[in-house]
Amino acid sequence: MNAPGNIPVGYSRTLRLREMLQSNRLEFLMEAHNGISARIAKEAGFKAIWGSGLSISAQFGVRDNNEASWTQVVDNLEFMADASDLPILLDGDTGYGNFNNVRRLVRKLKQRGITGVCIEDKQFPKTNSFINGEAQPLADIDEFCGKIKAGKDSQSDPNFSIVAHVEALIAGWGMDEALKRAEAYRQAGADAILIHSKLSKPDEILTFYARMGRARSARHRADEVLQHADRCVPSGRHQLRDLGEPSDSRRSVGDAGDREGNPRQRDARQRGRPYDGQ
């Protein structure tokens, strides 16, 4: 999991993130929220950065509720991109509005050197998923698919990644709803699916992963397993050990550290190497 040293000519940040999303290995993105934390992630040996909406809001001293404007977030990301040459996947909340906002966001992120954005299927302004999550409404599926399509139509780099964040499990809508939404977002053009669970064990994540894989096979889409990776958000360290062998096509992002005082980034900095899940 060492950060690239000499990057080959033409091996862009967007391509490096896309390769991680399509990798057959268990990959990790480390949370960062400003220039210095982005630099720490690079020095610790991580391959990519998760630009956490929670942490970026916190370092501004505001709530994780879209109180920081999207332009403030983008300005902050520019410092992160300057401080580290790692690919950055932004936690873009709901896309900061409707499909027109997503269209403009994607163009501005690419101008600042950001390699992808993850948008969640909740309503704007968003509320942190762990605050009374089951009472939070979700976005209409067709409306959210429109955001994905608008973002994909607006990207100037074919390797820029748009990740669809499914909140159905957090919101208490159940596994069938999560699978229905994930498939709709895949068809709308999402490059990856992020499935979010608040449980302290990985059962929901593993069930989602298995059922989505079976559904694809039943529809003769075996080739798309590599093209549309599933990603997960562990709720704590113990989940990382349970998510499977490195051959599993799952991606893990670093937001778990945000809710635990960022121990993985702190541990990585102290040891001078990436967090290994132990």
What does this structure look like?
There is one protein chain. The protein is of the alpha/beta class and 278 residues long. It contains eleven helices and eight strands. The chain has one domain (14-271): TIM Barrel (Alpha-Beta Barrel), CATH 3.20.20. Helices cover 42% and strands 14% of the residues. Strands 1-2-3-4-5-6-7-8 form an eight-stranded parallel barrel, surrounded by eight helices. Strand 4 (116-120), helix 6 (141-154) and strand 5 form a beta-alpha-beta unit. Helix 6 runs parallel beside helix 7. It is globular, with a radius of gyration of 17 Å. The two termini are 15 Å apart.
Summarize the structure.
By secondary structure, this protein is an alpha/beta fold.
Tell me the helix content. Answer: 40-55%
Radius of gyration, CA atoms, in whole angstroms: 17 Å
Q: Biggest sheet, open or closed, and with what strands and sense?
A: 8 strands, parallel, barrel
N-to-C series of helices and strands = HEHEHHEHEHEHEHEHEHH
What does the overall shape look like?
globular
Strand portion: 5-15%
State the secondary-structure class. Answer: alpha/beta
The fourth-level CATH homologous superfamily is: Phosphoenolpyruvate-binding domains
For the residues shown, what is the average pLDDT? Answer: 79
- Output the CATH class name: Alpha Beta
Q: Tally the helices: what do you get?
A: 11
Please give the order of strands in the largest beta sheet: 1-2-3-4-5-6-7-8
Do you know the CATH topology? TIM Barrel
Strand tally: 8
Total number of domains: 1
Instruction: List low-confidence stretches.
Output: 1-5, 217-230, 234-238, 245-250, 256-262, 268-278
Distance between the termini: 15 Å
Q: How does CATH name the architecture?
A: Alpha-Beta Barrel
